[in-house]
Amino acid sequence: MARHLADRFMPNECFVCGQEAGSVLVCEACRASLPRLAAVCPVCAIPSGEDLICGTCQRTRPAFDATAAALPYVFPVDRLVQALKYGRRLALTRFLSGLLEPFAPPQGAAVVVPMPLHPARLRERGFNQAAEIARPLARAWGVPLLIDAVERVRDTAPQATLPWLERRRNMRGAFRCNGSFAGRVVVVVDDVMTTGATLDELARTLKSHGAACVVNRVVARTPSPV
Ligand SMILES: [Zn+2]
Ligand SMILES: [Zn+2]
Asked: In this predicted model, what pLDDT tens digit does every residue of 38-50 receive, in sequence order?
């Protein structure tokens, strides 16, 4: 109720353009003109030109089976995600998870697993942005959310200078599963996918614990390989 009244009497400024946006965080015009990802690889969501599996995935298939990304990680999407992550703008989760809602997973054996954050990062940040995005999504999709089923046991800072294969090696053993995922379709939710090395390692771990299929749902995808 208080929230509802606050929304009515204190209109937000649009996060992108600063114009009055009523009760939403991003105004209709800015929402409609957000950059889009077109013709992406169904496996890794990198723009591939023709909705075909990209050369990288053809050469070395990642452990995950598919990826859907809502938006490319470019302005103003990068600002929105960073505001959530570092500016503690938790209200942005509603907006960002709303963008992923249309990408519902296949029903049946599906479970939602947010990309786990290392406990040291969790203490530092106070929340796991992937879990905050996953929570309303799991509810909207009617799919169970498994918050503690996977832990991040190694604090591997992404090393931008490392070539992809080394990053992949660098991620080895980063996760630990508590329990079995036998026969499950695991929907991994994350905010940003950059190289995919972290998602690849998580998928590898989930499959070694029985997952039948691992599909990623990410808010934003870095549009070109880094
Ligand atoms: Zn706007
Ligand atoms: Zn690909």
From this structure: 889 999 999 888 8
* Domain match, 26 and 121 both: no
CATH number for the domain that contains residue 165: 3.40.50
pLDDT per residue as tens digits for the range 135-165: 999 999 999 999 999 999 988 766 666 777 7
23 Cα–ligand 1 center, Å: 12
23 and 58 share a domain? no
Calculate how far, in angstroms, residue 4's C-alpha sits from the geometric centre of ligand 1.
21
Ligand 1: centre distance to CA 89 (Å): 17
4 in the same domain as 75: no
Q: Alpha helix locations (H) across the chain?
A: 2-9, 28-32, 55-59, 77-86, 92-100, 119-125, 129-141, 164-171, 197-208
